[in-house]
Amino acid sequence: SSSSSSSSAASSASSYSSYSVKAKSSPSSAARFAVAHDTSSSSSSDNTYVTDNNNNDDDAPILVPEKHPSAVAASIPIEPVEKTISRTGVVPKVVRSSKYRHIHAKPVMKSLQYDNLKVQGSLSNSIVRVNSSFFSVPWTGTGGLLAVIPHTMTGRLPTSVPCFEIGSQLLDFDIHPFRDNIIATGGEDAHVKIWKVPSEGLISKQSSSSSSSSKGPATAKNITQCEIDMIGHTRKLVTVDFHPSAENILLTSGGDSVIKAWDVEAGKEVKSYAPLPDLIWSLSVNYSGDLIAATGKDKMLRILDSKSKSVVSEVASHTGAKGTKVTWLGNKDKIFTVGFNKSSEREYTLWDSRSMAAPMSTTTIDQLSGIMSPFYDEDTGVIFLAGRGDGSIKMFEIEDDNSIHYLTEYSSSNPQMGVARMPKTMVDVKACEFNRFIKVTDTTAEPIQMTVPRTRLEYFQDDIYPPTRANKPAMSSSDWVSGSSKNPTLISIAPPGMSPLSSAPAPVKKTGAGYVQQMQEDKTPSKDQVMNKFYQMTMAYKESETTQTNSAHDGDEDDEWA
C-alpha cells in the first residue's frame, strides 16, 4: 500500500488528467467523482482526494490523496462549477411604522360591567346601540321589547326590567345621534315608531332596589305609547338608521326594497328612493351626507344620490349567499364592505366610490360563519371587525395610500351577540384610550377599552386625538331635503388645562455630564485573600499544636530518666 501511495503521489498530474478524460466519457466515472470529490465543500488543506483510475470496482471507489487541482491549473484547464445556494431562512421584512401597532384591548373591571341581561338575539341587524347616556338592547319577551339601560346602572340588573313595547316583532332600531332621549324602531308590522326616553330613565334605582328586596318577581310596567308612528313601507322593516350629519333625518328600508327618509320631528316622509331589485341588508351615509351606499340580497353594492333619489353607481360585490355590511371610510371617498365569497369564507373589500368598475383590494379573513359588522374610526384610520358569534374583535389600519394592514385583535372565550362603538367623547383621554366598545352576550354587557401605550401622559396626545365629530348636526333637515351636503361639525376632546403634546418641549435626555462619579475603595477581601488567610491560620494552628505536643513529650522523658 505504501508503494502504491508513493507512485500515485509521484504521478499526480498524469492521474488527474487521465481522470478528467475518463469523467467526460464515462457516466460512472462522473458519479464516482461526485462521491469522492465534493466540489461544494471547502477545505483548508492543500490536499484533496480523487478516485483511483486503476480501480476496476465501480461499486467501491478508492480515494487516493493528491495535490489540490490548483497546483496544476496552469497545465490543465478546469471549468468552474456553478454553486446554487438554497435559502432556507425567512428574509426579514422592514417593520412598518404605525402609531396603533400595539393596541391594548381589555374589558373594564367586573364591578363596572352589566349582568342579568335577557337579550333577544333574533334581530338580523342591530343587537345593541349606544350613546353617551345609555345603551339599548332587544329584550326577551312578547310584543317586541326594547330595554334602555343607563351607563350608571352597573352590576346586576333587576329581574324585571321596564321596556318599550312596540306591539310587533322588533327587527331593527337606532338612537338619535344628536338627541340622547330619542329612539327609532322598526317592526314586523312595517311601522316606524319614535320613542322618547324619560329623563329619569326606564330603569331607576328605586325599581332596582324594590325588585331585589321583594319576595316574588316584580312585574315591570312597559311603555306602549310611542311619540310618533309613521307608516309608509308596505312590508316589514329591515334597516333603521339615523342620518349621521343631518338633523332629525331617519333612513329606513323594508321588505319592499325601498329606502325612505323621514323627518322624525315632523313625523312624515320626506324622500322615497327608487325601488331596488332585492332586499336591502345594510346602509351607510358618506362624509358629506349626500350619498348612500347600500348592499342587498342580490349581491350588489349600490350608491344612491340623495338629490336625484336614484342609483348613480352599482357593482357586484361579495359572491357569498350570506349578509354583507358596508361603511364609508370618512372623507376618503372609499367604501369598505365585509361579506362572504363562494367558498363561504369571510372577506373584506375596498372600493373607490369614484370608479367602481373593480375593487381596489379583496382579502380573505377566515372561515367562520358569523356576519361581521365594520366600525370605522375616522380620526385614526383604524377599522374594527366584529362578527356575530365570535369572541374577538379584529383591528386593521387603512392608510392614505389605500393599503390595509392587520394590527391585532381582542379575543375572549365568550361569544358576542353584538358589539357597538361608543362615542369618542366617552373615552379616557388621560389613559390614551382612543376607542371604547360595548360587547353584549345573552346575559352580560361589558365595555371594552382600546388604549395605545404612550409616555408623557401629562400631555394631550393630539396626534391620536384629532378633532372628532361633535354632538351637533351639520345641517338641518330642510337643507338636506333640498339637496345640500356639508361635512360634519368637528370638536376637540382635549381636557381643559391639558397642554398638547405637539407644543410640549422636547424631553431632556440624561447624559453623563450631570453626574459626578464617586470613586470608593472596595475593601471587601477577594476569594484568594480569604483562602490565603484561612490557610495561614490553619498552618499556624497546626504548628502551635505540634509545639505543645513536643514540649509535653520532652517533659515525660526527663521524668522517666530522673
Describe what this molecule looks like in 3D.
By secondary structure, the chain is α+β, with helices and mostly antiparallel strands. It contains 6 helices and 34 strands. The protein has a 4-stranded antiparallel sheet, with no helix packed on it. A 4-stranded antiparallel sheet has the order 5-6-7-9, with no helix packed on it. A 4-stranded antiparallel sheet has the order 10-11-12-13, with no helix packed on it. Strand 31 (433-440) and strand 32 form a beta hairpin. Helix 2 packs across helix 3 (27-36). The chain is elongated, with a radius of gyration of 41 Å.
Class inferred from helices and paired strands: alpha+beta
Percentage of residues in DSSP E strands: 25-35%
Biggest beta-sheet profile: 4 strands, antiparallel
Taken from the alpha-carbon principal axes, the silhouette is elongated
Beta strands, count: 34
Q: What low-confidence regions span 5 or more consecutive residues with pLDDT below 50?
A: 1-66, 69-74, 208-218
Adjacency order of strands in the biggest sheet: 3-32-31-30
Give average pLDDT, whole number. 82
- The helicity comes to 10-25%
Distance between the termini: 89 Å
Counted by DSSP, the helix tally is: 6
The radius of gyration over CA amounts to: 41 Å
Notable traits:
6 helices; four-stranded antiparallel beta sheet; alpha+beta; 562 residues
In a few lines, what is going on in this structure?
This protein has helices at residues 2-10, 12-25, 27-36, 205-213, 477-481, 527-561, and strands at residues 47-51, 63-67, 104-107, 114-115, 129-130, 134-139, 145-150, 155-156, 163-165, 170-175, 182-187, 191-196, 228-231, 237-242, 249-254, 259-263, 268-272, 280-285, 291-296, 300-305, 310-316, 325-328, 334-340, 346-352, 361-366, 372-377, 382-387, 392-398, 404-411, 418-421, 433-440, 445-451, 468-469, 490-491.
